[in-house]
Amino acid sequence: MTLARFSPAATSARSARTAIKMVDADTVLAVVPGLAALGVSLQNKNAGAFVAPQTTLVSNAEMLSIARENFKKWNDALQTKDAAYVASLYSNSDLSFLPTVSGKHIKKIDSTEEYFTDFVMKNPFGTITDDSVQIYGDGEAYLHSGMYTFELGEGAARAPVQARFSYVWRKINGDWKITHHHSSVRPEGPDMLTIARSNFQKWNDALQTKDAATVASLYSNADLSFLPT
Asked: Cystine design at 131: which of 121, 146, 183, 201 (Cβ 3.0–4.6 Å)?
């Protein structure tokens, strides 16, 4: 029969493990001080890994209602013809304002007031015709963009102006302020009815020449579909 070889090192290791099991946690941390730091580090990493994403506290429909209320507040301010009051709705810091009837990029509140000093005298009244809203953060800011029509001028000279808009409103010290405003006249598309009538006149005039080649030159030489009278 073969006897297991006695190993002092193995016995010592087993004794050490048994001893550690019997020692309380404070003693272990005292003996191995780096363990405490490691535990804190792992805890911080795990805490960061499970941080819940920010959730929006306001629904899209609710924010669109707020956006329209703020637009009405701004539009009502225009009716007072008080440029300083209109300008007070804009942020006095981090402002980006690109007005409809100015080529300037306004960044300061005093320049905003200066712009509205002239603009309010045009008797502007805005009506939103299409809009949407995007919410930022926890509902502390939003982008309101779309199309509006402005009535400008007086009496017979009063005329509508179709324009595009975008506002960024942000809550600053509990009050909604405009930090970005862009407004530009909507580009006009081609008047296809006028173009069509002009081209018909061109075709009809070609018939009067009695030159078949001239008439035929008005037709495409590829992908043509022609059903004569």
From this structure: 146
